[in-house]
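Ligand-bound model needed. adenosine-5'-triphosphate.
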Amino acid sequence: MTQRQSIRGMHDILPEATKDWQRLERQMASLFARYQFKEIRLPIVEHTDVFTRAIGQTTDVVEKEMYTFEDRNGDSLSLRPEGTAGVVRSVIQHGLLNPPGLKVWYQGPMFRHERPQRGRQRQFHQFGAEVFGLAEAGVDVELIALVDRLWHELGLRDDLRLEINSLGDPEDRQRYRQELVEYLMPHEQELDEDSKRRLHTNPLRIFDSKVETTQAIMAHAPRFFDHLGEPARVHFETVCELLDQLGIEYTINTGLVRGLDYYCRTVFEWVTDRLGAQGTVCAGGRYDGLVAMAGGKDVPGIGFAMGAERLLDLLSTKNDESEAPPSVYWVGAVGIGPVLQKAEALRTALPSLVVGVDLVGGSLKSQFKRADRSQARFALVVGETELADGTVQVKDLRSKQEQHHLKQEDLAQYLAEQLIESKE
Ligand code: ATP
Ligand code: MG
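Prediction:
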């Protein structure tokens, strides 16, 4: 039989990597809790129109990236390409929008059929957060402050810069759209194919184009920022003032438009130069019309999503030495029974200790080799003598110290002092 490979762009997360994921997951859960967010866990599959309506028909995600299929009932379903649409569906369905101020976070896999490359998988993972029912600028800023704190806690603050922009209100965009199209019409033939099409469907998205000739044309395009209506302009100025007050640095990037249709007013991205072309680690913004469009009450919303793979990639470039957990490894020359018994007793006595047991046996030399490879700090040895006099031989695997004997009943206390209390 030919050997199967995982699907292109969908990666296994192997045992050596999961500890970094788990650590990040713990940090995220703690951070969200401190800002009063509760976790929400949703299906990975939704009716396709949950996404097409929310994200917009003329976006890249809906036009060419979704994994859409018919199930056995003939319903059109899709793997989620992002989290917000499903969260909105859920909070409407379960009536969670009252009272205003719901704060939820989520994590998990997302699916987009894009060209795989560094920072771009077909199955990737996001952490995201959403706040519903609050229109005030302070909400935008608290959300940004949360992410800023995360960078501090991860030691990444100097690697990421915050860019913000305002996409205004729908009526502002309507007016601006006409002006943009008027500017672009004389350049139509110079645009790339995608942008030509967008000129008539979604001209704002042309700012997102990565094609250089198109970018050159867009560099001189009228900026939406100069067309903000009064309410959106005041909102944005307040956001900037509050960020200043908190000492959170940012740059205003008036060319920042987001890839999904539902955004309005504040949009933001955290970008790094250390990951090559795919440098956006976290992105978000306001989506005040989305809940109503999805069939709920007309309440405002705001959120962000960050790419877990890009974040872990960035963390790994910092080559921080991740601390190994306290760990020992049992080695025996008396059969597996007594060794397992002692290991179990030790696991009961010290629940936070990682306890390895040599299950293979054989010569002491080969057992010690495996003990070394397990990266344990101490090897614990039981031979006939130790079994007879109720002791354990303790060998420090990291220093050249002589090995010494301990009474069985003193072992847990000794290891607690050496490995656990010394870390606290
Ligand atoms: P990009 O411009 O990089 O395509 P996007 O605007 O499509 O990003 P969002 O929909 O805003 O991305 O998703 C939020 C975050 O999720 C991104 O900033 C990125 O960190 C991550 N992300 C998006 N698509 C992928 C992907 N295919 N593989 C890995 N991470 C991704
Ligand atoms: Mg994309």
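The chain has a mean pLDDT of 93.
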